[in-house]
Design brief:
With 293 residues, the chain is of the alpha+beta class. It has a domain at 12-69 and 154-287: (Glycosyl)asparaginase (Glutamine Phosphoribosylpyrophosphate, subunit 1, domain 1), CATH 3.60.20. It has 8 helices and 12 strands. A hairpin with a 4-residue loop joins strand 9 and strand 10. Helix 1 (24-46) runs antiparallel to helix 2 (51-64). The structure holds aspartic acid.
C-alpha cells in the first residue's frame, strides 16, 4: 500500500488496470500496458495540459490495448456480444459524460467525453451508439471482431490533478463478462465507479453490483470532503463492502495531489506518478496470488 504523500504536488496521476486475479502469463502485458498509459497521462500533465485530457489519454491507451477489459479487449456478454460502459468527469466544473451498453465503439471514454457539454450525462445502448456515430466515434461492425479476438483481463480507470489544481476521473470497461445483455455495472455511474469534484476524484473497479450496493465511490469522495486523506478514504469506503462478493478496488486523489488506493480480493494493478516523484511507478499488488497459465 502506498503511503499518502504529505507534501503538495504540482501534478499527480494514478490509474488502475482492475482488480481481477491475473494469470502469470498476463502479468507482464498488464505491466507494459499500465506503463504506456501512465506515460500518456504524464506527458499531458508535465507539459501543463488538463487533468481531463490526461485521464482521457490514459484510458484511451488502455482501451487500445487488448490486454485490458475495455475497448479493444472488452469481455463479451452471455450472448457473445461486446457492450461497453465508460465515464469521465471534470472535478472543477462537475461536467460529466457517460455511456453504457455501447456497442461497436473502440473508445467509449471519448464518446463519454463528447457528451460532457451536453444536457444529458448518460446515454445507453442504441442512443449512445447513435450519438457516437454522429460524432464520428463509432466503428460499425467492430464489436464482432472484438468478440472474436478474445478478452482482456481487467477494467481500467484513471484520476489526475493538473498544474492548475483541477481534478478529473475516467473509467472504462467491457463489464464482468458472461452477464445478461443490457447489464450495466458501476463504471458509468457517478458516485459508484467514477466521480470528481474539487475535493477529490475516484475510479473504482470490481463487481459492479457490490460497488453499487456499498455506494463505494460516493463514500470515498465524501470522506475526502470531510478531511480524510485519499488513502483513509478508500480504506473507509471498502469497509462498506462487508460480506459482498470480493474483488473490488478503488484509486483516489485529493486536491493536494495525495494518492490512495486499496482493494479486496487477490490482486490489483495500479500505476502512478507525481511531480515530486515523476518516475513511473507500477504496482501489481498480490502478485503472489497470480495463477499459473
Ligand atoms: N466494475 C466493472 C463492472 O462491474 C467490472 C470490473 O471492474 O472488473 O462492470
Amino acid at each position: 500500500m502506498l503511503d499518502a504523500k504529505q507534501s503538495e504536488q504540482t501534478w499527480a496521476v494514478i490509474l488502475h488496470g482492475g482488480c481481477k486475479p491475473l494469470k502469470t502469463s498476463e502479468v507482464e502485458p498488464n505491466r507494459e500496458g499500465l506503463q504506456d498509459a501512465l506515460a500518456e497521462a504524464v506527458a499531458v500533465l508535465s507539459s501543463g495540459g488538463s487533468a481531463l485530457d490526461a485521464v482521457e489519454a490514459a484510458v484511451r491507451a488502455m482501451e487500445d490495448d487488448p490486454t485490458f477489459n475495455a475497448g479493444r479487449g472488452s469481455k463479451t456478454n452471455a450472448e457473445g456480444e461486446v457492450e461497453c460502459d465508460a465515464s469521465i468527469m471534470d472535478g472543477e466544473t462537475l461536467e460529466l459524460g457517460a455511456v453504457c451498453v455501447l456497442k461497436d465503439t473502440l473508445h467509449p471514454v471519448s464518446v463519454a467525453r463528447a457528451l460532457m457539454p451536453e444536457t444529458e450525462t448518460l446515454l445507453a445502448g442504441e442512443g449512445a451508439y447513435r450519438f457516437a456515430q454522429r460524432r464520428g466515434l463509432a466503428q460499425p461492425g467492430i464489436g464482432k471482431t472484438l468478440a472474436a479476438a478474445g478478452e482482456g483481463t481487467t477494467t481500467v480507470g484513471c484520476v489526475a490533478m493538473d498544474q492548475q489544481g483541477r481534478l478529473a476521473a475516467a473509467t472504462s470497461t467491457g463489464g464482468t463478462g458472461g452477464s445478461k445483455p443490457g447489464r450495466v455495472g458501476d463504471s458509468p455511474l457517478p458516485g459508484l465507479g467514477v466521480y470528481a469534484n474539487k475535493a477529490g476524484a475516484i475510479s473504482a473497479t470490481g463487481q459492479g453490483e457490490s460497488i453499487a450496493r456499498a455506494m463505494l465511490g460516493a463514500r470515498c469522495v465524501i470522506a475526502m470532503e470531510n478531511g480524510m486523506s485519499p488513502q483513509e478514504g478508500v480504506d473507509h469506503a471498502l469497509t462498506f463492502l462487508g460480506g459482498l462478493p470480493p474483488h473490488s478496488g478503488m484509486i483516489a486523489l485529493d486536491a493536494q495531489g495525495r494518492i490512495g488506493w486499496a482493494f479486496t480480493g487477490d490482486q490489483m494493478t495500479v500505476a502512478m506518478a507525481t511531480s515530486e516523484a515523476p518516475d513511473l511507478r507500477i504496482e501489481i499488488a498480490g502478485l503472489e496470488n497470480a495463477e499459473d497459465a
